[in-house]
Design brief:
With 269 residues, this protein is α+β, with helices and mostly antiparallel strands. It contains eight helices and eleven strands. α5 runs antiparallel to α6. The two termini are 34 Å apart.
Length: 269
């Protein structure tokens, strides 16, 4: 099935999914502008990066958009976004939304509302269409897996709760212990031993439940690639980068077994 046929099947112009994709692109372009202004490096990642390389835009059925950046850049971006985002956008992280418990951020549209299939967003402040911004860190895979285990209980508590108010208090307590004590201790340990470890692996920031390894020599220096008629940042050896994570990323999945992230979506404008 060629790209035109895939577009016609999954996201033809004017469809709800295509409208969502265009809104996510609009959000990304605003973030891109701010990143360029402050010399913050980021790159398209995961399915968004596959879409860029395989379709020169969104994977036709994709309903999310992901970017990554090193944690030092991420921390800088979190400081400037609240004052530099346009009025129609909101930054969502643990500082701007008291019930948000992910260790990565979202930039959300205020002119839409969407509910995700997993239900994790049910008490969050913001519910608009979003893009995900993932901080990346240079640390061993074993340390990332250890950090995953310390937060895994949060997701179980939230997923199985019958009392949301009690559950969110417990989730917030676990989040704070990790964010204020466990993760800083792990980073200090890493800093003290980095001269021995000779780290080359980059993986998701602590607390993010993904540990596929990336490699600095495949990512930097960044280059650009076409994504929905815009030149946007990608790893300079994107093919090797994607094959390390996904294998044969050019092969289409079973189109009859796709799982959407979004459960319900409506636009206000």
């Amino acid at each position: 099935m060629n790209h035109s046929e895939l577009r016609q099947r999954f996201n033809p112009d004017g469809s709800l999914l295509r409208r969502q994709q265009i809104r996510m692109l609009d959000i990304l372009l605003e973030v891109d502008k701010i990143c360029k202004k402050h010399h913050i490096q980021y790159w398209l990642s995961s399915g968004t990066l596959i879409g860029a390389m395989r379709h020169n835009g969104f994977i036709p059925w994709d309903d999310d958009l992901d970017i990554e950046m090193m944690r030092s850049d991420y921390l800088r971006l979190m400081k400037v976004l609240p004052t530099e985002l346009p009025e129609w956008l909101a930054l969502q992280n643990n500082e701007t939304d008291p019930n948000y418990f992910y260790f990565y951020a979202k930039v959300r549209d205020k002119c839409s509302k969407m509910l995700e299939q997993n239900g994790y967003d049910r008490l969050w402040k913001e519910h608009g269409i979003y893009i995900d911004i993932f901080p990346m860190e240079q640390h061993p895979i074993w340390m990332q897996k250890l950090a995953e285990k310390t937060v895994g209980h949060m997701y179980k508590v939230w997923r199985t709760s019958t009392d949301d108010q009690k559950a969110i208090k417990k989730v917030r307590r676990i989040f704070n212990i990790n964010n204020r004590i466990i993760f800083p201790c792990l980073r200090t340990l890493l800093h003290l031993t980095s001269y021995i470890l000779h780290l080359k692996v980059i993986t998701s920031g602590m607390g993010i439940p993904f540990h596929n390894p990336r490699y600095a020599e495949e990512i930097f220096p960044l280059t650009t690639h076409v994504f929905e008629d815009h030149q946007l940042p990608v790893p300079h050896n994107t093919d090797a980068h994607l094959r390390h994570i996904f294998g044969d990323y050019m092969q289409l999945p079973d189109l009859d077994k796709l799982t959407p992230h979004v459960g319900k979506l409506e636009f206000f404008d």
